[in-house]
Write a structure and sequence with these properties.
This protein is α+β, with helices and mostly antiparallel strands. The chain is built from 16 helices and 13 strands. The strands form 3 sheets. It has a 6-stranded antiparallel β-sheet. It has a 5-stranded mixed β-sheet with strand order 8-10-11-13-12, covered by helices on one side.
Length: 530
């Protein structure tokens, strides 16, 4: 405002040198300079915030006096009232608008009184119109200022929120990086096209080591990955990264990386990443180094196999000599003693055979057309005396009018059914019941073995087919066993391209479901009937 005032005054003097520079005019110009100096010198930050409004209020009076003292040549100075009016109205309080209007009125009324020039018709019109016009300017300024202030506060609030979100995101990113680098599992996140998004330190170190050990690999994409047999390279479509890119999820799949003595075993797991819209956004893969575990299991199996071989020979010899001894004419008491010895030796030999079979996976099968109903009948007949002695009802329920012919090894399937029925008898209390049911659906034979025994928890069910596993309630009881029956049964069923599963509830019993392929002749019969 001061610069504009001085510029206008200079132009007037330049364009009209004969202007009368009267003392009132010079005094009013001095007031402008005094107000400009006050703006620079007075420590306004120490005064109340609204104290500075005295400057624009006095500016209005100074402009009015200067305009009145300058005569017709300086009437244009009235436009300068816009500056102090805007200053007064630009605030959050409506009182600034009232102050601006009052200052405008005073700038039109007081100068004629102060200078003694009196009022004419033009002065009266100015007193009326000037406050109206500048009042409208003040109201517009007030509204505009508050809208801008509101928008500025909104932007500042959003900026604060964005900064907080950014800080939180950085904290979470740092936490995620720390967690990923802390765990002993190699983790890699890939995008929809298989591109790497995120890896942790363990993954990078494992990949680097694999590249260094693999003479044929010049970069991570050329590392040779082998299947569970450690010798057969995985087909390209079975590589974990490509499977993850295709949207396949998998769990605990064993694979080997590297060659020779530096070969390492990994358990690979993949889970898909999905967006809010359900679309696939990528996948996260986890690789656990299980080399030590696999080697320990191999050593354990080798030890069990060696011990089983060493035990089998003397046990077979003992049974042979017991058979010879029992063929002799013996004292009844001695014969009973020897019979007990033979029975327990046979049980021990059976346990050794089970250990040997599970350690070497030597459960060979010889599938051929066989009747599942006949196998089940023999198993039930063999187990009936034992079930009756325990007060357990044993029932065989076969689907009427259906041939249960399958491509089976009768001896192995009989062994599997015997194991299941034996387990059911062991874990069913006196007065309970066991039901063996069987039937056929399309190209599949099915068999249920259901008991009313002690049952299992969900955690125990997940480990039921693990070798040497026995439920907690069995450890605290006198029920004999080594925890191999279900593992052997599972191996037998899978060797027949069948499936086995179980469902159980603690205190309510257990149901085991077997499925086996139906014989070719039965398949043709089903298709012709259809």
């Amino acid at each position: 405002m001061s610069v504009t005032m001085l510029l206008v005054a200079a132009l007037v003097v330049l364009l009209h040198p004969a202007i009368d520079l009267s003392p009132p005019l010079m005094l009013s110009m001095g007031v402008h300079l005094l107000l400009l100096g006050a703006c620079a010198i007075v420590p306004w930050q120490r005064l109340p915030a609204r104290a500075a409004l005295v400057i624009p209020f006095l500016d209005c009076l100074a402009v009015g006096v200067t305009r009145e003292a300058g005569g017709q040549y300086l009437t244009v100075l009235g436009y300068l009232l816009v500056f102090p009016v805007v200053w007064l109205a630009a605030g959050r309080h409506r009182s600034g608008v009232i102050a601006a209007v009052m200052a405008t009125v005073l700038s039109a009324v007081l100068p004629p009184i102060i200078l003694g020039t009196g009022f004419d018709r033009a002065d009266f019109i100015r007193v009326v119109l000037l406050p109206v016009i500048l009042g409208a300017v003040a109201l517009t300024t007030y509204g505009t200022f508050n809208v801008i202030s509101f928008q500025r506060r909104s932007l500042e609030q959003r900026e604060t929120e964005v900064r907080e979100l950014l800080s939180t995101s950085q904290d979470r990113e740092q936490l995620l990086g720390t967690v990923l680098d802390t765990v002993s599992v190699a983790v890699s996140a890939v995008g929809p096209q298989g591109e790497t998004i995120l890896t942790n330190h363990q993954y990078t170190s494992h990949v680097t080591r694999a590249v260094q050990k693999d003479e044929l690999a010049k970069n991570p994409s050329q590392i040779t990955i082998y299947g569970p047999d450690r010798a057969t390279p995985l087909p390209l479509e079975q590589i974990p990264r490509l499977r993850a890119a295709r949207g396949e999820a998998f769990t605990d799949e064993l694979l080997w990386i590297g060659c020779g003595t530096s070969q390492r075993a990994y358990s690979a797991t993949c889970r898909l990443i999905k967006g809010p819209d359900g679309q696939r956004r990528g996948a996260v893969m986890a690789f656990t180094d299980v080399t030590a575990l696999v080697e320990a299991l191999a050593v354990k199996d080798q030890f069990v196999s060696s011990v089983s071989h060493e035990l089998r020979t003397p046990l077979t010899s003992i049974l042979g000599y017991l058979a010879l001894a029992l063929d002799e004419d013996l004292d009844p008491d001695l014969e009973d003693y020897l019979t007990v010895i033979r029975r327990n030796t046979q049980r021990l030999l059976g346990l050794v055979d089970d250990l040997l079979a599970t350690a070497t996976d030597a459960l060979s099968t010889n599938p051929r057309p066989a009747d599942l109903a006949e196998i089940l009948t023999h198993s039930v007949e063999a187990a009936s005396p034992r079930a009756g002695a325990a007060g357990i009802t044993l029932t065989l329920d076969l689907e009427p009018g259906t041939e249960l012919m399958g491509n089976l090894d009768p001896d192995r399937i009989g062994q599997a059914i015997d194991n299941l029925v034996s387990n059911a008898i062991k874990y069913t209390p006196d007065g309970g019941s066991i039901t063996i049911s069987a039937g056929a659906r399309d190209h599949t034979l099915y068999c249920h073995v259901t008991d009313t025994g002690v049952g299992m928890t969900e955690e125990e069910q997940s480990k039921a087919f693990t070798r040497f596993f026995r439920a907690a309630n069995v450890h605290s009881s006198t029920i004999p066993g080594a925890g191999l029956g279900l593992a052997i049964t599972k191996s037998i069923i899978e060797n027949h391209n069948g499936t086995i599963s179980l469902s159980s509830s603690p205190g309510k019993g257990t149901t085991v479901l077997l499925t086996l392929p139906r014989a070719a002749a039965d398949k043709e019969s089903v298709e012709s009937n259809a």
